[in-house]
Amino acid sequence: MPRNTVKTPELIAKLEYAFSVDADVATACFYAGISETTFYRWGSEDETFRDRMKSLKNKPVMKALETVIDSLDDVSNAKWFLERRSKEFAQQNKTKLVTDDGKGGDAPIGSVDLSQLSDSALNELKKISDEDTQQN
């Protein structure tokens, strides 16, 4: 099927729609029936067109932000938002580790190589985990 190379209002509308739903350039061009080369040529020839297509990629982000903000009357949503937007409310993704030598410190969860721990340290972790499971 031959590709379109003339910038028509219909093609621009298709590109605008595709970019407004967060399509990448390849997908938007496929949807509009143009080549990526044509798209980039149009952008190099028309700064307003290029800026418009680029700005439309922010539309889904704005919609997501509006949705989150609209849901903040729910306490769990408000807590989730604060944990992600404010260092003051951020949950600490760290766990205290104590090694056989009595030293220890914070380690990000998921970054501990358990194969490097001694049997006694592994048993202590299992004991703590079992206690936490019983409490919950």
Can you describe what's shown?
With 136 residues, this protein is mainly alpha-helical. It contains seven helices and two strands. It has helices spanning 9-20, 25-32, 36-45, 47-56, 59-70, 75-85, 119-135; strands at 94-98, 104-108. A two-stranded antiparallel ribbon has the order 1-2. The chain starts with 8 loop residues before the first helix and ends with a helix.
Secondary structure layout plus pairing:
Blueprint: H1 9-20, H2 25-32, H3 36-45, H4 47-56, H5 59-70, H6 75-85, E1 94-98, E2 104-108, H7 119-135
Antiparallel strand pairs: 1-2
Helix pairs in contact: 1-2, 1-4, 3-4
Count of DSSP E strands?
2
Q: What is the makeup of the main sheet?
A: 2 strands, antiparallel
Helix fraction bin: 55-70%
Low-confidence stretches: none
Which oligomerization state do the chains in this entry correspond to? single chain
* Structural classification: mainly alpha
First CA to last CA: what distance?
62 Å
So how many helices? 7
